[in-house]
Write a structure and sequence with these properties.
alpha+beta; Beta-Lactamase; 4-stranded antiparallel sheet; 7 helices; 44% helix; elongated
């Protein structure tokens, strides 16, 4: 017996759409008529047919497996972020113990490269040192540095930017040696009348992605800005 086309009435006077609408409005219909479930048959990918209950169970199993997999991924991300938070805290304590800007930068670079497994680290402050005899390394890029505009929006937004760095940004921060950087993060640094960037790069394209704890990076930027504040000339 041929099945009626969709939208055409069957011998009972109902169209496929009317039946579908009724079942959507009464999702518990089969609860009172369990005998109908065993009579229903749906086409199977292979030979033969399976009951509606079997099809639903199979779909639920697939959905549950996807849910469990996603839950495992979220737990793994949470665990990594928790470990990252502990390391960030220890790093902040070490930085606060450094007596001079040179020591601060050396400690920061060493810890981020070794403990956080990164390939490139750089700080650029668009400001001058606060004291004449202060350390004035490459980190103090100066107030009028032309490249400042490359980071203006990041500094003003006060939120880390994660992903691939633009070519001009990459060259300014890491030089030509940074051509192998495939992913990175730029953390804004701010003070009274000055701004800057903490840049971290990796050769691994998946090292810095959206799952990275942005809140912790923001916290690191705030802590580093506070630690550097006495050494930066403010307006």
């Amino acid at each position: 017996m041929n099945k009626p086309k969709a939208g055409t009435p069957d011998p009972a006077g109902l169209t496929d759409e009317e039946v579908a609408i009724y079942l959507r409005r009464h999702p518990d219909f089969f609860a009172s008529r369990p005998d109908l479930l065993s009579d229903l048959r749906l086409p199977h990918a292979g030979s033969g047919a399976v009951s509606l209950v079997e099809r639903q169970i199979s779909a639920l199993r697939r959905q549950n497996e996807k849910t469990r997999q996603r839950l495992r991924e979220l737990i793994d991300i949470a665990r990594r972020n928790e470990e990252l938070a502990v390391r960030m805290h220890l790093l902040a304590l070490k930085l606060m113990e450094c007596p001079e800007p040179k020591d601060i930068f050396e400690m920061l670079y060493r810890e981020l490269r070794d403990d956080f497994k990164t390939d490139r680290v750089a700080v650029r402050l668009f400001a001058a040192p606060s004291f004449i005899d202060s350390f004035a390394g490459d980190e103090f890029a100066g107030e009028e540095r032309e490249e400042r505009h490359l980071f203006k929006s990041i500094i003003e937004r006060r939120k880390p930017l994660i992903g691939r760095l633009k070519r001009q940004q990459q060259v300014f921060l890491f030089g030509d040696d940074g051509d192998d950087i495939a992913s990175g993060v730029m953390v804004p640094l701010r003070g009274s009348g000055w701004g800057g960037i903490l840049a971290i790069g990796s050769r691994d394209p998946a090292r810095f992605n959206e799952h990275l704890g942005v809140e912790m990076l923001t916290h690191l930027g705030e802590v580093l800005s506070c630690i550097l504040k006495p050494w930066v000339r403010e307006k």
